[in-house]
């Protein structure tokens, strides 16, 4: 594991990216760990699935070039040619990481059986490819459609795990202001460096990559309103659904199973105790009936009189998983709105100076 992590670290730092580096990988991995452990998802996943989720988080931006998929496609890079212009970076990350895992001294998967390896690889590929922002709206729409139905069992584990990693990858606006602001400025600097390359190559600027015209505060408000908040809303609804259906199951600590010897042929491993979908998370004979609706009488109790409200004891409120990200989203959006007003005032002052001096146009971007 130490050799593997060392190689992954080298891949993250060799491009010297302001944002997509080892710190971003650590931040996303810590956030995934929080979502799994503190939000209860770890009790629903097998040890193999938890292991896949953590490794996917660690390698999800491995060997990132500091430029976007659009830049690779527009510039005709070798990487874009290799992956046919589709999910260029995401394919690069997961492919390069598995090449590292094939090295003898970095093989962290030697304890897995053939079947477990295939499942692990499939989960990691699905999760990392789902971080491609071009898949964002379809991914959110698909999961939202499934959790909107009474029968929630059609949601595959891989879909749920992919949503977890995607939400964690874009989660910095849901953290404290000082962290969010630092991550934002690092990301914008990486975008601006790409814009400089695009200008040098005679390419049009990609969105948010022109350092002279990009409005940072406005862009972050839009990012929160249209991307981050809706994603976390769906994620929270998914957690609520899992809780309501009583589909959490208990798993022993990862350490008890990942160090096991490979199972004998035909013998199931502790790493694969649960099925891939919610419908198989608990054996049929062990499944618990879902809680009755708020105003539905218990089968063993008489129906409440229509002239009087039901007893409070008969009402079972639907579980709602805590959403610690909501206050930070609101606070950060409020702070960015304040910045937009200050930036507008400063641009107005610069415009007056420009009119009086006939100098160059003042920049639209103002970093405070």
From TrEMBL:
Domain of life: Eukaryota
Entry binding sites for Zn(2+) 1: 24, 60-61, 169
PROSITE patterns on file: PDEASE_I_1, PDEASE_I_2
Residues the record lists as binding AMP: 20-24, 61, 169, 220
Basic residues composition-biased segments: 315-325
Listed InterPro entries: HD/PDEase_dom, PDEase, PDEase_catalytic_dom, PDEase_catalytic_dom_sf, PDEase_CS
Stretches with biased composition (Low complexity): 289-298
Comp. bias (Pro residues): 299-312
GO molecular function: 3',5'-cyclic-nucleotide phosphodiesterase activity; metal ion binding
The PDEase domain, residue ranges: 1-343
Residue numbers annotated as active site: 20
GO BP: any one term: signal transduction
Record-linked Pfam families: PDEase_I (PF00233)
Entry binding sites for Zn(2+) 2: 61
Protein name as it appears in the record: PDEase domain-containing protein
Species of the source: Caerostris darwini
